[in-house]
Amino acid sequence: MLNKAPSLNEFRIITCLALSTMFILTVGCTNFSGSTDNPQDARNHLTFEELMAEKPPGMVDNKYYMPIKPSDQAPHKLSGTISFSETLMNHQVSKWGYLGEGQAYFPKFSIPLISHNGHLIPLKRGLIYLYKHKNSIYHVIFSPGSVWREPGDKGFSRASFPFTLTDNFEGISRSGLATFVYNESTISKVAVQISQDNAPKGQHLQANFDGLVIARYLPGKITDEDATIGAFNQELSRRLKIHSWRELKDGDSLHELFNMGLAETDISIAALVLDGEIYLQPPVTRSGIYPYPESMRTGVYSATKSLAAGLSMFFLAEKYGEGVFDEQITDYVTGLAKHPGWKGVTFAHTLNMATGVRGSDGPKDINSFIITPSAKYKLRAINRLEDKPPAPGEKFAYATTNSFVLSYAINQYVKSKEGDDADLWQMVERDVLRPIGIFHFPILRTKERKGQLGVPLMGLASFPNVDEAAKIALLLQNDGQYQGRQLLNRNKVRQALNKTEWPGYEAGRNRRYQHSFWLYPNLKGGDCIFKLSSMSGRGGHYIAFYPKNIIAIRFADAMNYNLQYMSSAVGQIRNLCGN
To answer: Residues 304, 457: contact at Cβ < 8 Å?
Structure first.
């Protein structure tokens, strides 16, 4: 464990190494291909004067949100609360889609934070729910950033941080950057820009936004400052090692093959996990390389069914026994008890999309579920879906509504075991995620009255970063065991990843479905035909388990579901045949 967080220079080196896959990098840190100005020469954008002005500076290369010719002088201490005003951002959008013009508004929110050793550390992590704004539709995820000094900032210090905006419905993610200058008592306006999104093409808005947000800084001592810094240091020390993709043999050609058919800006995260370490491609946005690759969070849509619902069921099977898979839905979801279609449906049927109840992800079946915020009304929408043959457990029929029913049911199951104050996902965080080094995994919950804790959707709207996705995948790859502790039920994990004779359910197009994981039985990599188990999400999100203990991660929103090129690239890294 680290005794202290890395210095700013160490942090910048780590970030640059993670980005150095396909581009020549400058010390400052990136030089995006196609850029005509060099940030080593001067700060040409986001200057002190621009951050103090009235007019937004516009879209710039992401490199200007990072240090440019920083001085060795220590930055001012930042300790207190920053309050951001709701702000209409610049855009070039004419058609907004069902989420409306609220997508153009940066949300109003306040957050306590502290600077330490070159880092900007927010005290609120995970998903910050924002329901009371006037126009904006967004919740926000605020990730750790950086602080430093530059000679041209008139004695002020400078800060930047990455953030993610998401909606209250499906979990679209918009990855942004923010920067401001500050001293002991005040801050400038905050420049923000968004040039990467997870918004599946043809279904959701993909657009750039930028703005200058009025913010107020209230200095103050942070309670338990030492504990906050200690927790952050622990978080850094538990991160998996990140290598440049270029360190792979023939990395340049593998990069092209791995992403064949996709534009670089279609992809949020692309990485391989080899021997417990990450080989990362640089996250390319419409305004250059994203300078906080370890903090880019992506809404991965239905990969959440595996990351949340599947993970939760494997945890419950280990904690309470495999009999939990045979529990009846209607014993725990009273709102569906009179529905004939849910009679006899088990937790296992629901996890495996074999309920026998009408459902799909088409507008007719899912829209009323998506747009209503509370668990009560989501269940009412599901209750209106009629029964249809065959009987439960006989046939696969994919529907995201099933995942929410399961989430509600297993949460009530946990309350029956542990008391009314128990919350399933908090137990998963405590007993599974934290032991493997995941401390802040955002997942969308329902909106409930009077601040009551909502129910995780579990069919969509989780927001992993590459480190979290890799750690969960490694736990599953190791049959649910971590450092000698069995955190997940070994048998059920092995069933999900096709390591047993359990067949799962025929899912069409030469695929099977096994406890929320997809099985592709006939993929080719190198000279091999092999079976591939994967978490999968709409748009083209994959966390895939290859032979020889290789994990491939690719989060994309181009609606490209071709796994063959990616598999061919993996097959060039290691021989996937035999022992």
So the answer is: yes
Cα–Cα distance for residue pair 82/218, rounded to 1 Å: 6
Pick the closest to residue 18 from 466, 464, 462, 438 (CA basis): 466
- Measured CA to CA, the distance from residue 78 to residue 114 in angstroms comes to 5
Cα 437 to Cα 424: distance, rounded to the nearest angstrom = 19
Sign of CA dihedral 220, 224, 226, 232: negative
Nearest Cα residue to 26 out of 72, 61, 74: 61
Q: What percent of the chain has pLDDT over 70?
A: 93
pLDDT of residue 13: 39
**Exposed/middle/buried for residue 195 (C-beta within 10 Å: 0-12, 13-18, 19+):** buried
Domain ranges across the chain: 36-223, 302-466
- How does DSSP assign 247-292, residue by residue? GSTTHHHHHHHHTTTS-GGGEEEEEEEETTEEEE---EEBTEE-S-
Which CATH number describes the domain made up of 302-466?
Answer: 3.40.710.10
pLDDT per position as a tens digit, 393-425? 999 999 999 999 999 999 999 999 999 999 999
Say which amino acid occupies 226. D
Bin 99: left if φ > 0, else alpha if -120 < ψ < 50, else beta.
alpha
Contact yes or no for 538/515 (Cβ under 8 A): no
Mean pLDDT for 236-243 is: 97
